[in-house]
Amino acid sequence: MKCLILLALVGLSLCAESTTVAPSSTTSTEPSSTSSTTENPTTSTPAPDPTPAPIPPEAKSDSLHFEINSADGNGSVCALFEFVAKIEFRYPNATLHGDPIYLNNNTSLNSLSSCNVNTTNLVLNINNNTESRLSLQLNHTVPIYTLDRIEATIPAGPPHKESFYKLISNGTLISKIDDTKSYTCDSQTQYDLSIVDQKTNITAVLILSGLKIDAFRSKDAGKNFRTTEQCEADFPSNDFVPLAVGCALIALVLIVLIAYIVGRKRSHRLTYQSV
């Protein structure tokens, strides 16, 4: 009996030891005395690239075509014109510069344009500006006609930008066009113009290319250009003829010189033999 009680006590003591929970050791970390603050990086949004300004179209002249109808009202075309044109200023001072005036498709036929048996006048509103004009005057003396006069009224360049220049040509510009034909000049041709009533050394030049003129036409000529007469500038200069003439002259001089030398030697030989 004592043995059973002793075994019971030993078992109870073992159970008590197995159910006792050992205290857990807690490690506490003291807060650091220095606190670090992490700053957010500053990000700047790049400004968008500026939109490039649109590039204006390059100024240029257009090929223009004009018809002047007969004043008798029968619908016939008494004059035809076709050309590409621009007006440039010529300045004595290199510091001054004015932009050329290009005649574009807005250039229109002015109501002052006319033609009769003796005279043809082409008057244009430059680029549809009624204050800016260009006129070509042709005169007819059977069997030829001529371009005798060019006039222009255009906005002045520097230093007179607020005014207009009146320009005029000097002398006959195209002479002796057969009145049964048209005139064609594809090459670029310059016509000097002087400024009227202006105390200035500035001059101007009208530059025409692809020029076609058909004036003093008969009523049955239709609306196409007649048989053309080409300008001299369209034919390339031929240097072969003067070159050939020069070579022939040099050869002739050499022949005469050789003949002279041979003759002199023969003369000396005969003189020596006679002695």
Q: Can you walk me through this structure?
A:
The structure is a single chain. The chain is an alpha+beta fold and 275 residues long. It is 19% helix and 33% strand. The chain has two helices and 14 strands. Strands 1, 2, 3, 4, 5, 6, 7, 8, 9, 10, 11, 12, 13 and 14 form a 14-stranded mixed β-sheet that branches. Strand 5 and strand 6 form a beta hairpin. The protein is extended, with a radius of gyration of 50 Å. The model is unreliable at 14-36 (pLDDT under 50).
List keywords for this structure.
275 residues, Porin, alpha+beta, 14-stranded mixed sheet
Quick summary:
The chain has 275 residues and is of the alpha+beta class. It has two helices and 14 strands.
SSE topology sketch:
Blueprint: H1 2-19, E1 64-69, E2 77-90, E3 101-102, E4 108-109, E5 114-115, E6 119-125, E7 133-141, E8 144-155, E9 164-168, E10 174-178, E11 182-185, E12 189-195, E13 203-215, E14 228-230, H2 240-274
Parallel strand pairs: 11-14
Antiparallel strand pairs: 1-2, 2-3, 2-13, 4-6, 5-6, 6-7, 7-8, 8-9, 8-10, 9-12, 11-13, 12-13
Mean pLDDT: 81
**How many strands?**
14
CATH architecture of the domain at 64-231: Beta Barrel
* CATH hierarchy class name of the domain at 64-231: Mainly Beta
| Binned strand content | 25-35%
CATH topology of the domain at 64-231: Porin
Distance between the termini: 194 Å
What can be said about the biggest beta sheet? 14 strands, mixed
